[in-house]
Amino acid sequence: SYELTQPPSVSVSPGQTASITCSGNKLGDKYTSWYQQKPGQSPVVLIYQDNKRPYGISWRFSGSTSGNTATLTISATQAMDEADYYCQTWDISTAVFGAGTKVTVL
Amino acid sequence: QVQLVESGGGLVKPGGSLRLSCAASGITFSDYYMSWIRQAPGKGLEWVSHISTSGSTKYYADSVKGRFSISRDNAQNSLYLEMNSLRAEDTAVYYCARLNGDTAMGYFDYWGQGTPLTVSS
Fold it and tell me: Could you say which DSSP state residue A16 is in?
């Protein structure tokens, strides 16, 4: 079965840029979405179709894809960005999520 | 505004059965694929199943295939998940989510608050 690999954790200082990677076989040939989940809350979509932001999502969140890796970038990181982040793609009409990355704002 | 409200979770013994429901409002329910996604305690998100707009096409994760059944009632704006032969590893919060788009480009744009299921003797 298809797998997406994310780093378990990323640390970032306030105001700096955080990058979260998501790798999978031929991921560049698929579309990737990114979700943010804060403790006790439901996930929220941040990025879809690799690099599109839904209405209402901050410009500080951006997505890109190259080769086998998709990247979520958080610019000018704020304390409120501390959360778990999940990438997601599709493989033969089934949805696949990465294991998640915990972002800590130090 | 869009609301997805799950219900039906609870405590079930191993081998037991349960049906989850998701009531949708604020959307044209019949226009969208709908999905169930779960999250075990302290773990990540796991896609469980989704169903096409008419209900004619259904997909399941290997972990639940043959035990779970997804269905929908477009007249009632409701999504269901019938769960049989439940195992301890099915313990999770179950989310109902709307799929915006198809199963190649789509994304989950609205999520319910989740309903918890515990499978334990």
Answer: S
